[in-house]
Write a structure and sequence with these properties.
Layout: H1 7-20, H2 30-40, H3 42-45, E1 48-49, E2 62-63, H4 64-70, E3 86-93, H5 97-105, E4 113-117, E5 133-134, H6 143-153, H7 160-168, H8 170-180, E6 205-206, H9 212-225, E7 230-233, E8 235-242, E9 248-255, E10 261-271, H10 295-302, E11 307-308, E12 313-320, H11 334-337, E13 342-343, H12 357-369, E14 374-375, E15 381-385, H13 388-394, H14 398-402, H15 404-411, E16 422-431, E17 434-436, E18 448-450, E19 455-456, H16 467-486
Parallel strand pairs: 3-4, 3-10, 4-7, 10-18, 17-19
Antiparallel strand pairs: 1-2, 5-6, 8-9, 9-10, 11-17, 12-16, 13-15, 14-15, 15-16
The structure holds (2E)-2-methylbut-2-enedioic acid.
(2E)-2-methylbut-2-enedioic acid is lined by residues 129-132, 330, 332-334, 465-466, 468.
Length: 490
């Protein structure tokens, strides 16, 4: 696709960005941001190496922990011969938003569908997403403008065809979610409350207070449980099965409670396994759920699929730095979008709180490296997020009403964000890259589709808030459509 479709919007966003640089903050341009993180945390994101398995053309730098897993031996016992235990048309691997959206998309297809998840249905990064979902529904907005924000924010490394599909599918996806029962916060205009996010040029983020992902997953889960999909819980996919001629034909599942191996034969396999933040590269704290261990990357890699942009992970600027029990947990970007400033140990602002995530994260790391952060009793560093400011700006009670999850979590440890600021530091949040897919969600291997965080290309090397919740809905459902049009014969 040529970028003409969104050219004017890209120009507009670039102009806005240039104007923002005139603020009195150090110019941490996006290109410098990753470098800054690397310079000050060489152990965390600089510890990378190349991987190569057989004829696999994957190159680029991979985090050490991930490289080790990609190159590890098959977990199956030597000499294991897959026998067909379950036969189905479609096997979905992953029980988060993308997997369930795919299952719902297959509901009236007449195909038999099994969904395998290594935890329970719904345990996923989807439920960890707090601040909202993006879609171009505001009065001054358009899919082109959404595209431009995400494209400039992603350093122009986004796959433009995938991104165009995401942005055009935003409004109908919100309608679909509302019809299923998602209760977005209402706004003054009778529609939804639209908020800003880091890098959005107009308000575009819709939320369910500060538990948007949890609400979306609740609704998806209720919807899918009433349908025809068969669920295989506590079943981790440990190897894909192929026909010896390059066609993926199923997967071997390992029951995490009994250790029993089950082979599922399928005409189509959809990978929806999410990200890898729980690999906690070099012990970096993470906002991810416990199952985010890169399983889909490993399965696809062993089938010689290309992986893209895995040198690039997202460090969310505001993970909790204190108390220790919450270290790494998300403090939603919406707090900043509502007006909370970030201040160093001297009480000074040092970054535009709503610029791109990688820039804000780099600025915080820079403050710590320059000795202007606060040391916690547990040896961490943090800067202040001035949460009480929200009630001053927007009226008393705003924080309690819009961010109940945040308040509940901190209050358990004696910290009341209505009255006192909270300490934050970047946290490993999102796998920007992943398995290469085409616009039909097909990987390079026939029989194997992928959707959601396990895939790479859509967000370039820096994702904007709320584009991941949209991604799982749009591409989960698209994978379901694509499977129906391209289903291989058995
Ligand atoms: O998309 C996200 O990462 C998100 C919604 C995070 C947040 O800060 O709430």
């Amino acid at each position: 696709m040529s970028l003409d479709w969104a050219a004017e919007s890209i120009e507009h966003v670039n102009r806005t960005r240039a104007a923002r640089k005139n603020e009195n903050f150090p110019d941490l341009s996006e290109d410098d941001a990753n470098g800054l993180i690397r310079a000050h945390h060489p152990d965390y994101v600089g510890a990378e190496r190349q991987v190569k398995v057989g004829a696999n053309a994957n190159s680029g730098e991979f985090p050490l922990e991930l490289a080790a897993l990609l190159e590890s031996d098959s977990p199956l016992p030597a000499g294991f011969e897959p026998k067909v235990d379950i036969e189905t048309d479609v096997l979905i691997i992953g029980g988060g938003g993308a997997g369930v959206a795919a299952a719902l998309g297959l509901e009236n297809s007449g195909l038999t569908v099994h969904l395998a998840t290594k935890l329970r249905l719904g345990d996923s990064n989807t439920v960890m997403a707090e601040g909202g979902i993006q879609a171009a529904l505001g009065p001054d907005d358009s899919p082109q403008r959404h595209f431009a924000d995400a494209y400039v924010g992603g350093h122009g490394k986004n796959d433009p065809d995938l991104l165009k599909i995401l942005c055009e599918s935003g409004p109908p996806s919100i309608l679909w979610l509302v019809q299923l029962g998602v209760m977005f916060d209402p706004g003054d205009n009778g529609l939804f409350r639209m908020k800003a996010g880091g890098g959005t040029s107009v308000p575009r983020v819709m939320a369910c207070r500060d538990y948007t992902g949890l609400e979306i997953m609740r609704v998806l889960r209720d919807a899918v449980m009433g349908g025809g999909t068969k669920f295989l819980e506590n079943e981790a996919a440990v190897e894909l099965v192929d026909d010896g001629n390059g066609q993926v034909t199923g997967a071997v599942l390992w029951n995490t409670e009994t250790g029993k191996l089950t082979t599922v034969s399928a005409r189509a396999v959809i990978l929806a396994t999410g990200g890898s933040g729980q690999l906690r590269f070099q012990n970096f704290p993470t906002s991810n759920h416990m199952g985010a261990t890169g399983d889909g990357l490993i399965l696809a890699y062993r089938q010689h699929c290309s992986l893209v942009h895995l040198e690039s992970y997202q460090y969310h600027p505001s993970g909790a730095a204190y108390p220790e029990a919450l270290a790494g947990q998300l403090v939603t970007e919406s707090i900043r979008a509502s007006g909370a400033q970030i201040l160093n140990a001297k009480g000074e602002r040092f970054v535009n709180e709503l610029t791109y995530r990688d820039v804000v994260a780099a600025a915080i790391i820079n403050e710590a490296a320059e000795g202007r952060a606060v040391a916690t009793p547990h040896g961490r560093q943090g800067v202040w997020l001035d949460t009480p400011m929200i009630d001053l700006l927007k009226g008393e009670g705003t924080l309690v009403k819009q961010f109940p999850g945040l308040i509940h979590r901190f209050k358990r440890y004696g910290i009341d964000p209505v009255r006192q600021p909270v300490l934050i530091y970047p946290t490993l949040h999102y796998q920007n890259g992943g398995v290469k897919v085409d616009t039909q969600c097909r990987t390079e291997r026939p029989g194997l589709w992928a959707a959601g965080e396990v895939t790479g290309g859509l967000h370039g090397t820096n994702r904007l808030m709320g584009n991941s919740l949209l991604d799982i809905i749009v591409f989960g459902r698209r994978a379901a459509e694509s499977v129906q049009s391209n289903l291989p014969e058995r």
